[in-house]
Amino acid sequence: MLPARSKPVPIQQHALDNLRFIRETMERTSSFTAVPGWGGVAMGATAVVAAILAGFQADTQRWLSIWLLEALLAIGIGIFSMHRKAVEGGSTVFSAPARKFALSFAPPLLAGCILTGALFPVGQARLLPGLWLLLYGTGVMTGGAFSVRIVPAMGACFVGLGAVCLFSPESWGNWFLLAGFGVLHMVFGVLIARRYGG
């Protein structure tokens, strides 16, 4: 006896399944293009203000507080501007490329938080500017592997600046932060905005 034939799949359902598969495949292989250009400029501008304010602090606790507040502000600006750019591009910050970017970007930042908590209480605040630049650059490079070419290039500039900072006089640390989080963000932000939109 022949086995009972299963109910045939309607052609519309088959076509929808194929389209879903194609869309998901394209999403997995596409680049994360919602890296904010003008958002990067805004992050750079707030970092310049933070560097100027922190430069006048004789107390390292106040210096650290200013930079930690700046980091929170920059994260907020970055998330808002990425979301806005993604929506304008018909995408979402929860797409597969965005998740890959975030999962690659976050670990070096987490390492920076842990090292800050470990080094500052034992009087090693002089190492923080170089480490922050180095780890942020590493995050941008690894996340940038899923983005447009200019993003890993920006990360490499941060890594280079951080490496130089680690071997420079302690008094230069705050100005390295201004050059990195301020100037580099603004320069690359303008380049990204012009080439890839907002």
Question: Any overview of this molecule?
Answer:
- 75% of the residues lie in helices and 0% in strands.
- It is mainly alpha-helical and 198 residues long.
- It has one domain.
- Helix 2 runs antiparallel to helix 3, helix 4 (96-119) runs antiparallel to helix 5 and helix 5 (128-144) packs antiparallel against helix 6 (150-166).
Using only C-alpha atoms, the radius of gyration works out to 22 Å
What is the beta-strand fraction?
Answer: under 5%
**Structural class by secondary-structure content:** mainly alpha
User: Quick one: biggest sheet?
Assistant: none
Mean pLDDT: 85
Please, how many domains? 1
Helix content: over 70%
Low-confidence stretches: 26-30
C-alpha end-to-end distance: 66 Å
**If helices are DSSP runs of H or I spanning 4 or more residues, what is the number of helices?**
7
Shape: elongated
Number of DSSP strands?
0
Order of helices and strands: HHHHHHH
Topology diagram in text:
Elements: H1 11-29, H2 37-55, H3 60-88, H4 96-119, H5 128-144, H6 150-166, H7 173-196
Helix pairs in contact: 2-3, 2-7, 4-5, 5-6, 5-7, 6-7
Keywords:
7 helices, 198 residues, mainly alpha, single chain
Can you summarize this structure?
This protein is mainly α and 198 residues long. The chain is 75% helix and 0% strand.
